Amino acid sequence: MQKTQAQTKNNFSTLPKIVFLFGLFMNAVGHSYLIISFPNLAREMGFSDSHGGMILGLGALGFLLAAPIWGFISEKIGRRPVLVIGLLAASIVPFIYGQLFSMRLEDSLSLSLAFSLIIFIRVLQALSTGGILPSAQAFIADQTTDKKRINGMGLLAAAFGLGTIAGSSLLWAISSLSIILGFYIIASFTGITTLLNMLLVKDAALSTKQNFKQESTIPWSKIWPCFLITTLGVTCYTLLNHVTGLHLQDLFKLEAEQASKEAGKLLTFTAITMILMQAIILQKVKFPPVRFMQIGALLALFGFFSLSYFKDYQLIIISMISLGGALGLVLPANLALLSLNSNGKVQGKVAGINAMGQGFGFALGPIMGGNLYQINTSYPYLLSALIALVIFSLSFKFQMREETDHQSAKTQQT
């Protein structure tokens, strides 16, 4: 029986894997490009900053609502259909954005009509693409054995991370030509990868008796720490993004433009380190997920505490790189533990709920960071260091369970 399951999970060959990961990459490119380019585009189209923020914020809210629903749907119709629906929307919507933005800039649409249409498309985008992340996470769980779960989750996280960097790089590369052009480029490449996913990527076959007998109830007692760790980890990451520029500006007495430039450089170092951890270290080093989480939490504790104390620019760079390594270990390890402590019939459900935790983290980080920074410039970093300590403590819950399961297995063998 175990041999049959292993063979089923090893049918994810190289070409379908590349196509699958490229789909996730292009979705992240589109998301990153919109988030970074839209505030300035919104001003150019005549919207106020608050209206621009409302459009992006409603999209985040739509994602929060859609992700768990799509996760549950993926248990009924499979991961691949949900993934393809999401990618199809991710390829069509940028084209529509390009059309709407162009028409508004040419004054072919009134301000009020353009605002209404863009809000409608933004919410529709969030609702239709909200299944990409949970279906992809569940798909990785279906296609990998327990020992390879951390490797798969690392590749998934790396694809999203690379796409985020590529989105900002695309904006930098073509902004002198036309920002609108970027939406058409993204639409084209995402459309190609959608077609390739439809042709080449298949759901894992769940054909063994054991799979049909698996419990479909979410094991809340086992996995609640994973949901909490997701929210806490993403909160720290978005908090870091929010206060880094402010911290550099105040610490080194920089102009706003120079501070933004330096913050962008440091956050790029952080993102690159995160991706290297996910794409290389997690693939090569044979540690269990809980060990990666513990190492990452300690790196985060060092990084955040150092940022609250260090005043030297070179030491700040070291701290930021340390945080990139920390996040690159903690977040995929947490996904692996979430998957390993849930059976095959609830992978989509727990992935969808976990995506809600990410959404909350993206909302909480900037709010907490901005308010704490106004009180004391060290408080955001000290809070994040405390969060890292909480994550380190929570990891022992999984370690103790692993030791108990291992001891039970030895007892049964004897």
Describe the structure.
It is a single chain. The chain is mainly alpha-helical and 414 residues long. The chain has two domains: 12-202, Growth Hormone, Chain: A (Up-down Bundle); 220-397, MFS general substrate transporter like domains (Growth Hormone, Chain: A). Helices cover 85% and strands 0% of the residues. The protein contains 15 helices and no strands. The chain has helices at 2-9, 14-45, 49-77, 79-105, 111-129, 132-143, 149-174, 179-200, 209-213, 220-252, 256-284, 289-307, 313-340, 347-375, 379-413.
Give the topology, please.
Blueprint lengths: L1 H8 L4 H32 L3 H29 L1 H27 L5 H19 L2 H12 L5 H26 L4 H22 L8 H5 L6 H33 L3 H29 L4 H19 L5 H28 L6 H29 L3 H35 L1
Helix pairs in contact: 2-3, 2-4, 2-7, 2-8, 3-4, 3-5, 3-6, 3-14, 4-5, 4-6, 4-8, 6-7, 6-14, 7-11, 7-13, 10-11, 10-13, 10-14, 10-15, 11-13, 12-13, 12-15
Features:
mainly alpha, Growth Hormone, Chain: A, 15 helices, globular
Helix content: over 70%
Kindly state the number of beta strands: 0
| Number of helical segments with 4 or more residues | 15
Low-confidence stretches: 1-8, 206-213
Level-2 CATH architecture of the largest domain? Up-down Bundle
Q: Give the structural class.
A: mainly alpha
CATH topology of the largest domain: Growth Hormone, Chain: A
Short description:
This protein is mostly helical and 414 residues long. Helix content is 85%, strand content 0%.
